[in-house]
Signal transduction histidine kinase internal region domain-containing protein
Amino acid sequence: MRPTTNFHRVLTQMSKRAQNLLFVYKIISAPKNKLLLCREYTNVKTNKTTTNRLKQVLLHVLFWLAILFFFTLTFSADNTINSNIFYFSLFLMPITIGITYVSIYKLIPDYLVTKRYFLFGLYSLYTIIISVFSIMFSVFYGIAFLTDFMFTKVESLTRNTLFIIACIYLVVIVVSAFKLLKLNLKQSKYNAELEAKILEAQLKLKEQELKYLKMQIHPHFLFNTLNTMYGFALKKSDTTPEMILKLSNLLDYLLYQVDKPSVALTEEINHIQDYIDLEQMRFSDTLDVSFTSNNCIGTISVAPMLFLPFVENSFKHGKILEGKLNIDIAFKCSGRNIDFSISNSHEKSQSTPHGIGLENIKKRLELLYKGQYKLDISESNDSYQVQLNLELPHG
């Protein structure tokens, strides 16, 4: 038995050591893998940046070669290219490149785009003065160097300093105009992206607020309905099965259909009728409800649970006067316009807070139909009235 026991002990120790070594290997290798991935990503990013810079440099070189060719042709009196005119144009390239880059990389982005107009005008004036003297200096020494101070050998066009300055500034103005256009396009793209992000954030905020309001309305409505069920259970009424069936329809609407952005108005009206039937069972002979709907076709869609909370509040907060709770509900539809009205018997003397349901439906109206609805709530000695006019958008 002892050899077997020792053998098992050795196997157990070897297994534990192997597990420890595997664990250490994972710890050691994981950072290396991450480091390798990071290095690979950095290398790819660096290579991409380097490639873009090389492309940009190549484009600039090609552009200035084209400008050199333009100057050579322009300064040739008979449109023939000779070495002196070429070297003279080459003499003007440094000052042309310098003025252009000062304009597009300093004056325009740092002062003009940032709307620092005074500094832009001031530094532009400094640049023009310095550049004019630099051009005259380049022209003089360029001609002197190429002709050994024999100015008569140079074509008359190259001796016209104003024309040379105009050609140089023509290049500067054209390049600056393209730079401005590029910056404007970039800014427009940035503004569009920023507006899209702001709009997306507003929509998400609106969606979250609507969800929060729904979360408050749903338990509130369900609580009142279950109270009705509880009353019937206490009475052991024969109508309880029918009431449970209607309640199941309402619960289906409440839990599933209400998450849709919109439902058919006829569907909302049908569930209002189911709710009225439930309350009719509870109130029995003490309830007098008038419910009408005119021209409300199935093509009209509204936000779910938009009208039902008004109806529910009328039953909850209505007052039985002279043995009756009187409620009048009416829907009138005309095109995209919905005119909804509801009134219930009420005693003005009593304090009747209308709960969170009515307050939340006001917030939902403001979020969903801002500028497209008119809500009037009035109170008299014996009635409480709500009038909602909704103008739905087309489409």
Summary: Residues 1-73 form one domain. Residues 349 and 381 are 8 Å apart (CA to CA). Strands lie at 263-264, 287-294, 301-302, 325-334, 337-345, 373-379, 383-391.
